[in-house]
Amino acid sequence: MAWEIAIHPAPPRETPIPWESLPFGRIFGQHMALAEYREGRWQQARIEPFHDLTLPPGTSALHYGQALFEGMKAYRRTDGTRFVFRLRDHWERLNRSAARLTMPEVPYELFSELLQTLLHREENFFPPSLQQALYIRPVYFATDPWLGVRPSETYLLLIYVTPVGPYYSGEVRAFVEPELTRAAIGGTGAIKAAGNYAAALLSTKKAQAVGCSVSLWLDATHRELIEEFSTMNAFFVEKGGRLLTPPLERGTILAGITRDTILFLAAKVGLEVEERELSIYEITEGIAQGRITEVFGTGTAATIMPVRALYFAGKFWTLPSENPVAQKLAQAYRALLSGDIPAPAGWIHRV
Length: 351
Ligand code: COI
Hints:
By secondary structure, this protein is α+β, with helices and mostly antiparallel strands. It is 24% helix and 29% strand. The strands form two sheets. Strands 1, 2, 3, 4, 5, 6, 7, 8 and 18 form a nine-stranded mixed beta sheet that branches. Strands 9, 10, 11, 12, 13, 14, 15, 16 and 17 form a nine-stranded mixed beta sheet that branches. The protein is globular. The chain starts with 5 loop residues before the first strand and ends with a strand. 2-OXO-4-methylpentanoic acid is lined by residues 71, 231, 299-301. 2-OXO-4-methylpentanoic acid (COI) binds next to loops.
């Protein structure tokens, strides 16, 4: 190992983990991994018992939002092998987010060794089946205690784990946001800036008021082109099975790693995909006329989540209750995790 990682072990968890009814992100591991950036270099890589943080009131991330996060999943196969899914891709995205927010690059060796060491300590938090996962949350933020608006000179990287079941329980309906926007060209829409999620909360509140659990964002210029759901990338299925999804080129949607995995799996299971700009009118008319037969979201937390209806222009545009294409992709996703579908090099990072 290139990085010296100090280990301060915590005692084992005493209360049993409710594997059959895991909530999302409420049960935490016993440890967390930390590293600090100071004096122009990363230092103090360590594993500590999971604990609260003490921060000065001036902590710049709290004021000016130099803060980002990632979400990854690790699994245990039936033969007992454990792995992180697409670790390097998540690390690359973390650094793309960091570059946009003028935060220092996190070296791959530091990131992967910290995580590896943490996961060895958290062995007992790996769920017993591929139906659940060990969700990994890296969070990276500015820690200078001064109030000047400028890039911080000090940072903290934290990584911790939470065993998780499904992100959504029950049917998901999406509120097409007609007014607020998530990202404009040139903004931070393509990265996992913490502030992107804060900016989405008001729309989620509006969504809940009409019986939806997520928002579907439209483009900031015309409020017409579909961007993504508030927690997931968006896919639409045409009658006959072709997938449609908005492209990444405008830089206003997250380059989802699950999105990319779905594009890979679609080819494997013989589904055509078109990445192109999609008008909300094209989609709602398509639903009304039976040309769009399924809508689903993809994300690390949500995996593949069928969306039953879109709320737009004052009414629900409801989809058929069957989701054969989403189901086929979910099955292929499980086959990829179990090893029945061979993964491209580097996607399965053994720990
Ligand atoms: C993830 O899918 O991992 C995310 O970070 C999205 C968040 C809504 C939990």
